[in-house]
Write a structure and sequence with these properties.
Helices cover about 20% and strands about 35% of the residues. The protein is α/β, with parallel strands linked by helices. The strands form 10 sheets. It has a 16-stranded mixed β-sheet that branches. Strands 8, 10, 13, 14, 15, 16, 18, 20 and 22 form a 9-stranded parallel β-sheet that branches. Helix 1 packs antiparallel against helix 3 and helix 3 (about 30-45) runs antiparallel to helix 4. The longest helix is centred in the first third of the chain and has 44 residues, at about 50-95. The termini are far apart.
Length: about 950
């Protein structure tokens, strides 16, 4: 075999390019094969008779050459990638420098242009090198590319050096390092590194300001720390871009041109001296934080004491976040009371422009106006004026004097009652496109007890608006749709014009209200079929105008100065079936006057319409003529009532004018004048029922024979019962149509075979029992027995508990017997016995030991519990847990059952029942256990109830009396 054959196959691969060789070698399996071949080749060479030293040296040389090629390729690729990243980062930084003709950075325009051009050329060169590298086949080509890369890196260094770019971390912490930074001059325009400035009182703050004025772009992080409050503050007037910024000084934080940063930490170290936070150009930021910053804090790390997502400076008179378009978390801002806050661009969106839900908490500014904040909770504290446009979240106000919202969707919460003076809100439905169900409910606004409120403007839609107790309210304007609007106790309201669409409007207790003009229409819906208007107890109200129609409720009372009303437009009661109207009256009059009332002489009066007459009045009562007539045709129990309060003259005409009866100065407060001043007083007839109808009743109950599942057995042919009442006997037995107890009950219930004298009813609702079957089995389903002597702990319902002692090898039947005995002893309400594996529970009649066989008996649940250390051991393992392990299963299944009840009612009030019940039985498998028959007796075997057991002496008949309502209707006199 040729000794060089394997070696040549491996190393003399003239067909392969360098890239293909590298790809081959970088494959793990191929590398394993390679070294196997090398090992075999070495062995062959070493075992041959030729000069193996020369061949080994040749092999070693070729391996080293290949290794050099691999390392050169890898190094070159990494270098190109790093250089490409650096060039890209610098291009971004340069692009962010806002150079304008007004810039005060000397020579920056030319420097920026040169940098942009140079970096573009370098970027193109790096791209070309990467393309050449991908096609490189030999180590010579890799070496050439490595040399070219070195040249490009040198060009970059030269470009940065000649164009005011400083690429080394800059640390200023002494007079010497400060002087060094000053000497760098315009090279600090772009810092491609970190900047750390620690200033103490020994350093020249003017020189520090000179340095900070040079910064335009800091590619990495900026840390600025003033060691004490005696160190003067500096500004960063020209800085446009930085990574993280952490700054603490005894003065304002001024970055007027800063456009983007990562995390900004504003130091609260000397917060009382921070008068301005100026980030007016900031358009991109990851987080805003208020922190305690230390000199030891490392650039790019979060300070130890940090309040995230907060700008909080209680002495700041200005906070400028003018250009911040969005923020990725809930944000809190606090400034000095009466300060300036500018957040013009702030919107509820993320970086992609998609709407998101973040909350905003603002304290202190004199005013806040947000036009793009559309979603998320908003809280404002001690902000004089708040204006929200298109905002759809919950709003909380505390110490706010003026609030405007043109799209109130959520809940408006007011934390104080003596601050809000002006409110202008438009209620709206939530039109969020992400809602799974469309919003159909408008918001409600509770302005009750807002004693400082002077003006309320309402638009859009609301469910309720409550202005009760807004005692300083002087102006209300409404164009909204409101289900319920309440004004009560608004003592400074002198006049009001209320429009919009309102279903229920109440205006009461406005002490200074002089005139009221209601131009609203009545809002109705499928549930709100008619409207309501209540105007009461406004002592100075002189005139009331309302055009709303469809009112089923109208109340105008207690307005002692009300002389003029105008209800033109009100004609119907709407969709409700009855109307309730009260206008005036002896107890709560107004001041509506009739100048003359003429009760025309009628020879015969048979109907209200035939009673003619006329009201003469300038009060406006006549505008209610059509409506009052419609309401009087459908009065509620309360009725439809309208009265004049006074009349100058009342004439009761007789057959001749000489016999007319005239009265002057009538008043509604005089009992004798009420009838003459009545326009309409129509009420429904009222039915009143006294007593209870009781008839003689007898009830017989039977237990039922049951199968193993506690279901009733079938009713055999000819098996059943007979019932005899008032001398008539009827039989109900099994046949082709009756084979179950339920069918037998249906046959008895409501039978009319006795005629009208007797009513018989039947039901499966008495003789109640509860079967609590205990199951205790192995995993194979076979019956198990207890493993030791011990105590069983049990409970019946939530309040009755007890124990029962059993022995080793006890079966479920023995367990049931023990628990039944214990339950009967422990409970005053239930009796129990054992039936096989079941504990059978019966309810006792209160305060007796008699079983309750009546109707309405209920039961609790029986459970076997595990408490204490003396419990019986259920399984062969050491556990006494009731749930057992996978080998044993213990449970209680409850089945509540009822027996049969037959009730015979004697419909006669004069003849008592005689022979009332006989029973016959044929066969041996009847569902009914005839031996269990029991006659129900109140307070003996049932709780007293005349519905099931009543003697002839208990017979009574309820009496219904009808009180006729008033029928006075003179609406046609108007």
């Amino acid at each position: 075999m040729n000794q060089k054959r394997i070696t040549n196959q491996i190393l003399e691969q003239t067909n392969y390019t360098l890239n293909s060789t590298l790809n081959y070698l970088f494959n793990i399996s191929n590398m394993k094969k390679l070294f196997s071949y090398l090992l075999i080749s070495s062995m062959v060479v070493l075992s041959s008779c030729t000069n193996y030293d020369d061949q080994f040296d040749d092999l070693n040389t070729q391996i080293n050459t290949l290794k050099s090629q691999i390392e050169g390729f890898s190094s070159l690729s990494s270098g190109l990638t790093a250089l490409q990243g650096t060039v890209s980062s610098l291009q971004t930084a340069i692009a962010n420098i806002p150079v304008t003709p007004a810039t005060d950075v000397s020579g920056l325009e030319a420097s920026q242009a040169a940098l942009e051009a140079g970096l573009s050329d370098l970027a193109a060169a790096v791209a070309a090198l990467k393309a050449d590298l991908a096609a490189a086949d030999t180590s010579d080509e890799v070496a050439a590319l490595t040399s070219a890369l070195a040249d490009v890196q040198a060009d970059l260094n030269e470009l940065l050096a000649s164009n005011n770019v400083y690429s080394t971390d800059l640390v200023i912490n002494s007079a010497a390092t400060l002087e060094f930074a000053q000497n760098l001059g315009d090279k600090l325009t772009i810092v491609n590194a970190n900047v750390t400035i620690d200033v103490d009182s020994t350093m020249d703050i003017a020189a520090v300001q000179e340095v900070t004025n040079k910064f335009v772009t800091i590619v990495k992080d900026l840390n600025y720390y003033a060691a004490s409050s005696t160190v003067g503050a500096v500004t960063f007037d020209n800085l446009t871009s930085a990574g993280d910024i952490a700054i603490a000084q005894a003065g304002s934080y001024v970055f007027p041109k800063l456009q983007n940063a990562t995390d900004i930490y504003l130091g609260s170290n000397y917060s009382s001296k921070v008068a301005i936070v100026d980030l007016r150009s900031l358009a991109k930021v990851t987080s805003l934080n208020t922190s305690t910053i230390l000199a030891a804090d490392v650039a790019g790390t979060t300070p130890t004491t940090n309040t995230a997502n907060t700008v909080s400076f209680s002495q700041a008179t200005e906070i400028h976040l003018t250009s911040v378009p969005y923020y990725g978390a809930n944000l809190t801002i606090l400034g000095k009371a009466g300060s300036v806050l500018d957040m013009t661009a702030f919107a509820s969106v993320d970086a992609d422009g998609d709407e998101v839900n973040y909350s905003l908490n603002i304290t202190g500014p004199a005013s806040v106006s947000l036009t793009k904040f559309t979603k998320g909770a908003a809280s404002f504290t001690d902000v004089a004026t708040v204006s929200l446009k298109s905002h759809r979240g919950n709003v909380t106000l505390d110490g706010v004097t003026s609030f405007t919202s043109d799209k109130l969707v959520g809940t408006l919460s007011l934390s104080s009652t003596n601050d809000l003076e002006v409110i202008n809100v438009t209620g709206a439905l939530d039109d969020d496109s992400t809602l799974t169900t469309a919003d159909t409910t408008y918001p409600s606004v509770d302005l009750s007890s807002q004693t400082a409120l002077t003006s309320a403007t309402l638009a859009g839609g609301f469910v309720t608006v409550n202005l009760t107790g807004a005692s300083n309210l002087t102006d209300i304007t409404n164009t909204a749709q409101i289900s319920t609007l309440t004004l009560s106790g608004n003592n400074d309201l002198t006049e009001a014009t209320i429009g919009g669409k309102i279903n229920s409007l109440t205006i009461t207790g406005a002490d200074d209200l002089l005139s009221l003009e209601l131009t609203h229409t009545t809002f109705t819906s499928t549930t709100l079929k008619s409207g309501s208007l209540v105007v009461t107890n406004n002592p100075k109200l002189e005139s009331l105008t309302s055009s709303a129609d469809k009112l089923s409720t109208l109340t105008v009372t207690g307005n002692g100065a009300l002389t003029t009303i105008d209800f033109t437009g009100l004609e119907t009661i709407g969709g409700d079936t009855t109307a309730t109207v009260t206008i005036g009256g002896a107890a709560a009059g107004n001041a509506l006057n009739a100048t003359k009332i003429v009760d025309t002489y009628n020879a015969t009066v048979t109907t209200q319409a035939s009673n003619t007459g006329a009201f003469t009045s300038t009060s406006g009562m006549s505008t209610l003529k059509t409506y009052l007539a419609a309401a009087a045709a459908a009065p509620s129990v309360t009725g439809v009532k309208a009265f004049f309060d006074t009349a100058d003259l009342h004439i009761a005409e007789a057959s001749t004018s000489a016999s007319n009866v005239e009265q002057n100065s009538l008043k509604i407060t005089t009992a004798g004048d009420v009838a003459e001043l009545t326009v309409v007083n129509v009420t429904k007839d009222v039915s009143t029922t006294t007593g209870t109808t009781v008839r003689e009743r007898l009830s017989v109950v039977y237990d039922l024979n049951r199968n193993a599942l506690y279901q009733p057995l079938a009713v055999g042919t000819g098996e059943g019962i007979s019932i005899t009442a008032l001398g008539v006997t009827n039989y109900f037995v099994g046949n082709d149509e009756i084979s179950t107890v339920s069918q037998l009950v249906d046959a008895i219930d409501g039978s009319t075979a006795w005629g009208s004298g007797v009513t018989v009813t039947a039901a499966l609702d008495a003789y109640s029992k509860s079967y609590n079957k205990i199951s205790y089995t192995t995993s194979a389903g076979s019956a198990a027995t207890t493993q030791s002597t011990g105590t069983i702990y049990w409970s019946y319902g939530a309040t009755t508990t007890g124990t029962a002692d059993i022995g080793t090898g006890s079966s479920t039947a023995q367990i049931a017997t023990a628990i039944a005995a214990a339950l009967s002893t422990a409970s005053d309400y239930y009796n129990a016995s054992a039936s096989g594996d079941a504990v059978v529970v019966s309810r006792l009649v209160t305060n007796t030991q008699n079983v309750d066989l009546g109707v309405g008996v209920t039961f609790q649940d029986l459970a076997i519990t595990e408490l204490g250390s003396t419990t019986v051991q259920w399984s062969t393992n050491a556990s006494n847990a009731a749930g057992q392990d996978s080998d044993y299963f213990l449970s209680v299944a409850t089945t509540d059952v009822n027996g049969l009840r037959v009730t015979v009612q004697n419909n006669s009030t004069s003849v008592a029942l005689a022979n009332t019940d006989t029973v016959f039985h044929v066969g041996t498998a009847a569902g009914i256990d005839l031996s269990s028959r029991a006659l129900l007796e109140s307070s003996t075997n049932m709780v007293g109830s005349l519905s099931y057991v009543a003697g002839f002496s208990d017979v009574d008949t309820a009496v219904t009396t009808v009180t006729e309502g008033s029928e006075t209707n003179r609406t046609h006199w108007l």
